[in-house]
Structure formats: C-alpha cells, structure tokens
Amino acid sequence: MSVEKMTTFQLEKHVDYIKSLDKKADFDSVVMEHLRMSGAYWGLTAMDMMHSLDDMDGDEIAAWILKCQHDCGGFGGNLGHDPHILYTLNAVQILALFDKLDVADADKIANYISGLQKDDGSFAGDEWGEIDTRFTYAAVNCLSILKRMHTINVQKATDFLVRCRNFDGGFGCTPGGESHAGQIFCCVAALAIMGALHHVDKDLLGWWLCERQVKAGGLNGRPEKLPDVCYSWWVLSSLVILDRAHWINKEKLKDFILNCQDQDRGGISDAPDDAVDVFHTFFGVAGLSLLEYPGIKSIDPAYALPVHVVDRIFFRQKC
Amino acid sequence: MHGRKRIPIGQAADKGKDQTKTNNLKKLLSDFLRNHHERCYSKEALKQNAQLLELNPEVYTAWNYRKLAVRHLFESEIDEAARKLILDEELQLVERALQSNVKSYGAWHHRKWVIDFGLSSLDHEFMLLKMLLKADCRNFHGWNYRRFCVEMKGMTPEKELEYATEKINENFSNYSAWHYRSKLLSPLIKGKENKEDVLNEEYRLVNQAYFTEPDDQSAWFYNTWLLGETKIESGPHVVGSWPEDGSSISVDAQEGSSFVAVNFRTPLDSEHRFESRTLTLVIYFNEEFSDVAATIRSKPELPHLSEVQWRSVSGTEAPSRAWLADIPVQSFAETEYTFFVEVSSPKECQNTPISFKLKYTKRGTSEVSRDQNSRSECYSWPSKKSSSDESQVGMRLELERLTVDPSSAEPGSIKQDPTRYLRRDNWQETVLEEQVDILRELLELEENSKWTLLTLARVLAAHGASRYTDEVLKLYKRLPDIDPDHADYYKAQYSILYVDKITRSPDILQKLWWDVEDRLSAGWLRWNGLSLSDFRSVERLLWVQRLDLSHNQLRTVDGLEAMQLLVALDVSHNKLPNITSLASLRLIPSLQYLNISQNEIGDHQVDATRYSFPSVLTNQMCFSSLSKGNVNAERSWELQAVFGGMNLKVLDIAGNSVASDEIFRETIVRALPQLELLDGEQVKR
Ligand SMILES: [Zn+2]
C-alpha cells in the first residue's frame, strides 16, 4: 500500500470500469461466464448506488434475464446454464432494480423455490441437493421480494438456521459447520427478513463480528485470517442488522476499502494492489454505503438492494 | 478473484499466451454446453467436460452434466464393480479439480454425491482429508466433508475428539479445531457429572493455549463459551413484578367510567400514582419464554380471574422476559383483596406466589375532577434542581466511589434473598477462582493484554459475587485505552454493568432520585449525564413512571417496553439515530410525554433498527394496516409503524435534523391523534 495514494472515492472511474466489463472477452470473463447473472447483479447494484443505473439498458437486460429462465421457473447463471437458486435470486434482484418485477411470473418462480425446501426446513441449491444456509437466504430474500413467503414453511426454515448456530454465536453452511462471516450474513439477513432475529445472540455474535477488524482496519471472515474487501459487506451488514456496527472503527475500515481502489483504471480489489473484479467492486461500494460515505446511495443490509428499491417494493403497492 | 496482483499500467500481460488460453477455455465451455443440451454422454464428451472442470471447477452446470452422465451410464451397467469404476473416475476428477481450486463448492458437492452411493472406500476419503487438513488446517470445506464422512462411517464423538485434540496440539490457533471440539462436546456436557470432568479438561487445554499463543483469538473465544457453560446458574424464575411481592396498592375507580387511579409505594419509600383504564400486572423472568401461564387468585374471591390471559410485552410470538395480564377492575367491590400470582408454565420455573394487597374504593365524579387537574402534571417535568453539567459530573464521580453492599436487599424486585436461586457449588467456585489466578498470572507477564483483561472481566462477572463488581467496571474502563478500535463495545459492557450495580443498591438509587418538593411528583428517576450507552436491569424498574435518561449516549430504548407504568420519558441529548430505534415505546400505552430532542434522527442514511420490530419488511405486518391518508408511504412508513397507536400528548423533537421537515411533522401529527404539544407549540388540526 503506497501512502501517497489519494484516498477519495473514484466514482466516475468505477462507473466506467463496470460499463467496460460487458465488452470484455479476456480469460477472466470466460472464467466468470457461468455466473454472469451474479456479475450483472453486482455491477448493476453498484451502478445504482453510484447514481448511474440510467446508463444501462434495462429493457435489454430484462429480456436477457428472461431468456435465462427455465420451464421449472428457476434461472440459470447465463444462457444455456442450469437453473439454480442463487441466480434465481440475482435475476429477481436485477428486475427489482429496474422496477420490472412484473415482467416475471412470480408464482412460477415461487413454485421453483418452494420446491427446493426440504423436510428439515433447509433449502437445496438446485435439483442436485446441495444444502447450504446461503440457499435459505436466497429463498427467503427472493420470496419476500416477490411477496410469496407463504409458499414455504417459514418456521421450519428458521429452525434449520438455528441448528446451524455455533458456540461463538455465528452460523455455518450446515449444522456443525464453522462460523464464517459470509454464512453469518446469510443467516442473520434471512432471520431478519423472517422477523426471527431473536434467535441471534446479538452481544455474543456482535463481539465476534467486531473482532473481525484487524489492526490495519480491514475485516476478515474468520479468526486469524487476512482482511478482504468482500467482508466489508458480509461482516458490516451483519453488524448493521444487529445494530452493533459502532463496535468497530469505521474510519479505519473506510480507509482500507478506499486503499483497495485501482485509482487509475477503476474497480476495487480484495486487498490493496491486487487485481480488481466486479465482485469486490460491488462489496467495496456496498461497504462504503453502509459506512455512510457521501455520494453513495444507501443499501439495505438484508435484501442487499438499494434502500430506495426495497422501499419501492414494500411501500409503493399494497400487499 | 483473490490474492492476485494488479498488473501495473503499461505492463500488459502476455496477450498471445492469454488469447490461446482464453480460446481453449471458450471452446471447452461451448462444446460441453452443446453436449449437455444434446444429452450426449460419449467418452469424448466426458473427457472434454473433465478438462473444463480441471481448468475451472466453478462451472456448476458441468458438474450437473456429469451427474446426468453417471445416471445414464448406470442404466446400462448394473454390475456393482463396473459401477464403482464409473464412480472412481468421478472421484479422481474431483481431486484434480480441487487441485485447481480447493474451495470449489461444486467439486465438494460432487464428491459427496458420489460417495453417497456407498460404493467407495471411506478409508481413502479419510486419508485424503488428513492430507488436505495438514496442508490447510482451516479449510472449512475439508472440515465439513470430514463431518460428512464421520457420519457416514458412524464414528463416535470420542474418536473425533482425539482428532480435534491432535489438531489443536499441532497448532493452538486452529480455530476450526476448537469449533469442532465445541460441537462434539455440546451433547456430552448435558449431564452434570460428565460436565465437570469434560470442562476441567477443556480449561486445561485453553490454559495451555493462553501461555503458548497469548495473542491468538481462538482459545479466548473458546474460553468465553466454556465460561457460559460454567457460569453459576440459576434456574428460570421471576426476577421482578408489578405490583411487587409484598406490596400494597390502592385503586380508586371513578363512578360510571372505566377510569382508574392507582396508588402504590415505590421501593424508595415514596407514593406513586397513575391513571389507567385497567390494572395491568407485569411479571419479569430471568430468561425468555415463548409461552407463559400464571394463575391469579384473590381473597376474597373474584369472578373471572381464572380467565385472565398472559401476553408477552412485545405482542408477538417471539420469546420474551416480560409478561402482562389485565385484571378487570369492574368486578371489584369496595373492599380489600389479597392477590396471589403463581406461575404454572413453564413448569421448570421455580417460584413462590407473588402476593400483594389491593384496597378498592369507588369515588364520585366530583372527587375525580381534582385528579383530572393533576393529570396534566403527569407529563410536565419538575424543574431540575441542578442541571448544570458541572454538578452532573460531580454526581457521577461520587457515584463511582460508592460500592455495592452485598447484604442490601434488591429494590424493585421481589423481596427475597437475591442469591436464593443460585445453584452455586464448590466445583464452579474452584474453576472460576483458578481461572482468575491464571489470568492474573498472565497479566504479570503482559499487563496490557486486551484478551487477558477482557477475559478476566468476564470470569469475575460470571462468578456473580458483588465484591468483584467494581473491579470488573475498572477493567471495562481501561480496555478502550488498550483497544480503542472496539471502544464502544467495552463502553456498552461498562454501561450495562453500571446500571446493574446502581439498580441493586437503594443507597445509590436514592441519589438518582428526582429531588423535588412536590410530594405528588416524588419518585421520578433521573439518570441523566451518566454516559450510559446501553442498559438492561429493567426488571428492577418496573414501577418507574417518569424516567429522565437525557444527556447519555443511548442509541436505542430497547427493553424499556417492560416499564408499563411509564408516563414520561426524556431521552433528549442522546445518540438515537432514527425513528425505528424508538420502536419499543409503541408497546407502552401509558406513555404520554416523550422528549427525543437533540438526537441524531435524520442524520443517518443507514437504519440499523429497521429489522428489530415487526413490519412489512420482516413479513410480519401487512402494509395496508399502516397506510392511512394520503401521506407518501415510502417516506412515512416508519413513523406510522412506530408512532401509530401511541397515546402521546407531548412530544419534543427539536434539535434533530428531521425536525425541520414539514412533511415529517405533519405525518407525526397525523400518526398521533392525541398529541397536544409538539416542540412546545399547540398542535393545530
Ligand atoms: Zn474477497
């Protein structure tokens, strides 16, 4: 990390960086081809937070999203790829961003998601049965946006998350799995959306999460690991939902994220001077948004969409 | 992308080589997708697919394709040995894929899917795991997979505990192994005898870890868990109630109306009065319950008492410590009653009945009109005798010198020996004392170790003896200097403990009393300027009607909802960040006066309390029940959700950035139909 670097937020450069991604055909973009839906969600949500969503063609994107939908109702990560709950959530999130939720058949999507719930309340990622608390989050977030929560067993979904809780107050992928900030975000946010936050020991987990901040200011995902910009989102959003974000040093975290920017070409990387990507660009911008950095739109810590989008979904129409 | 260096400007990557690599990957991808859609599972197609997964194991659809292929091949192959060969190929591919990305979820899941057929040797899997966890002892995919294999093989927790011990002895900072221990031990420490042996052994292990790796987090987190399991516990029981056990109240009812005035003595020897339409009993437990039943009996007997239902203060199904019941006053006759309240569910709750005396008088209309006058005084605060900052600081310092006398009774709670429920035994005492000694020894080696200091504070607090309270407070006061990044965490712990201390001591509480001449307004609790950032201990304050918390550092008023007699609350000059942080106040129907001026409401775009109460965002409320009138819903939902249904008459919001917003003020007036004064001005409707 070089000290002479300017540590202001390079909004225009990041916007240009995200815009350039679609035309890229390098090795990395081929590696990411199967998760283009997630890439689009990360990029577009970051664009919205940076007041630049209007630069993107919503109609064209919505048409592409619909082409990724399968007969079962689920969406694939790209054209020709199999349906999966993660990309189904991302597809719905992008439609919500563009205020185009009505182009999709909500009942059909809800039917796909509710079909993935198992007897123990958990969710499989797709028909091949991988179980993970990330999929519970995807299910709950997506169904809440679609106002179809009644299509699943919410009590059982909650019970399963509680079974994944650990001695340190955190949550893992499956019962028995070690606490990890990414999984903690999924479980805490899903519980928040289900109105079941009372299952979280806020003081114990809040303390564990605030100890993710390392001396240099960045956040790690587990004890004794290196800091990484993506945890600015996983850890910080969890702390915000638990109302414990003041337990960390926000100034230091802000500086860490700003230092991970590519000041010349835009984009944000996992750590200072590493190669940038859209994933970390989104999580860096989202982290700064939760730190109330001026000029960045506010993001909702549970739905992972800009607050104005969430408010539009829930408060514009009657349910 | 993780851990890959940024290429400096002007120093382009090797374009030619990159292009070949890219084209190769592209071709593998498109060939595989074509085969997938054509359901072609030829040898050649599978080979190409394997090449793709070796290069990029994250292509989830490519793993799906292989599962379909295995199914397809199994159709023509019923011989078990031949099937095993097919599966072996899959296992080998997973191994190669994991070499290119050991964190590939798709690869790990494919392996589980293959092993699930039950045709492959688990010994081989354990051998692989041994290698993998040797190379990266924190790989959680590896640990998850190990749990999967252990279950499959039906191995005992004892055997696995040996493995966890081995891994910890190799490296004390292996948090994954500590975590694994906690999982294996949790079922074993349920029984008391086992528990002591097991925990003794665990303490031995963490103690070793402190001395070997004093700056590593793993053992300290583990200790916090052990401490929770060791803590001198008390079973579930009632810790507070209103009316209090052994107290007397008098109820005056206005003739021909449901209006009721209640007089009672507070724990601090003063008369209290409040006005209500019903008599609401409060019981407060030391634990949260999602279902509570308690019988209410009276002498002489009253009809309908058996029909009285208990409800949690939150009104939701979420577990709660505070439970309420409304006693119908209209069935009373002019006489004296003795009430007995006895918890019947949860069954494990240890208790004796709470009993209180009630004297009932019916008054004529003329007598009550005098009451009507005093009613307006309910929400006008008496002048503060000493409101200058200097004297507040003075008082604070004085308070800190006071120590808690353990022999003094707890005010505001049931008049019983506070230690009666503690299941204290020698083992726990010994363990905790030993920990204290070890931690003090560590402090001699390094006096400013934050982990040692914090753990010492927790061990002393877990001990539960009030003689340690002041030392714990001192430790929490010192920690922000040593670890400033987490200062607010330590301050919150300090604040919680501090309030715990002052609510236990009548001497100290007396000093926080509102000092006014007017007998009627005696007994107003003044906690201003105490630097409070958080507090609990509400169970000892259930009788409080007027509470001044101004000039503190509170970010929320969560928990106050149990104070069902609260009429006036001053939380001005705090750090309340937004309207939703006030959500718990909507559960106090008696609240009439609220001062939230000089906070930070409107300064923050991030709303951290958005999810802490039932709303349409938490799928617990339908928006149509909130939306009334033509107010812009997107802007006002929180005002309606929090203030809608409250009975406020006086509200002060000045000094918050939202206070100057006309739409905000209009929405508030609309949400609060009984509001008379807003920021000191008469409300015009
Ligand atoms: Zn990362």
From TrEMBL, chain A:
Cofactor: Zn(2+)
Note accompanying the cofactor annotation: Binds 1 zinc ion per subunit.
Entry-linked SUPFAM superfamilies: Terpenoid cyclases/Protein prenyltransferases
Entries under InterPro entries matching the protein: PGGT1B-like, Prenyltrans, Ptb1, Terpenoid_cyclase/PrenylTrfase
Enzyme class: transferase
UniProt GO cellular component terms: Rab-protein geranylgeranyltransferase complex
MF-aspect GO terms: metal ion binding; Rab geranylgeranyltransferase activity
EC code: 2.5.1.60
Keywords: Metal-binding, Prenyltransferase, Repeat, Transferase, Zinc
Keyword RNA-binding in annotation: no
Reaction catalysed by this enzyme: geranylgeranyl diphosphate + L-cysteinyl-[protein] = S-geranylgeranyl-L-cysteinyl-[protein] + diphosphate
BP term (GO), one: endoplasmic reticulum to Golgi vesicle-mediated transport
The keyword Metal-binding is annotated on this UniProt entry: yes
Subunit record text: Heterotrimer composed of the alpha subunit RGTA, the beta subunit RGTB and REP; within this trimer, RGTA and RGTB form the catalytic component, while REP mediates peptide substrate binding.
Function: Required for male fertility and root tip growth.
Family as reported in the entry's similarity comment: Belongs to the protein prenyltransferase subunit beta family.
Protein name in UniProt: Geranylgeranyl transferase type-2 subunit beta
Source organism per UniProt: Marchantia polymorpha (Common liverwort)
UniProtKB/TrEMBL annotation, chain B:
One GO biological process term: prenylation
Family according to the record: Belongs to the protein prenyltransferase subunit alpha family.
A Gene Ontology cellular-component term: Rab-protein geranylgeranyltransferase complex
Gene3D superfamilies xrefs: Protein prenylyltransferase, Ribonuclease Inhibitor
Protein purpose: Catalyzes the transfer of a geranyl-geranyl moiety from geranyl-geranyl pyrophosphate to cysteines occuring in specific C-terminal amino acid sequences.
Class of this enzyme: transferase
Stretches the record annotates as Disordered: 1-20, 367-393
One GO molecular-function entry: Rab geranylgeranyltransferase activity
Keywords of this entry: Prenyltransferase, Repeat, Transferase
Catalytic activity, reaction form: geranylgeranyl diphosphate + L-cysteinyl-[protein] = S-geranylgeranyl-L-cysteinyl-[protein] + diphosphate
Organism expressing this protein natively: Marchantia polymorpha (Common liverwort)
Record carries keyword Phosphoprotein: no
Low complexity bias locations: 376-391
Organism superkingdom: Eukaryota
Keyword Magnesium: no
E.C. number(s) listed in UniProt: 2.5.1.60
Protein name: Geranylgeranyl transferase type-2 subunit alpha
Xref: InterPro entries: Leu-rich_rpt, LRR_dom_sf, Prenyl_trans_a
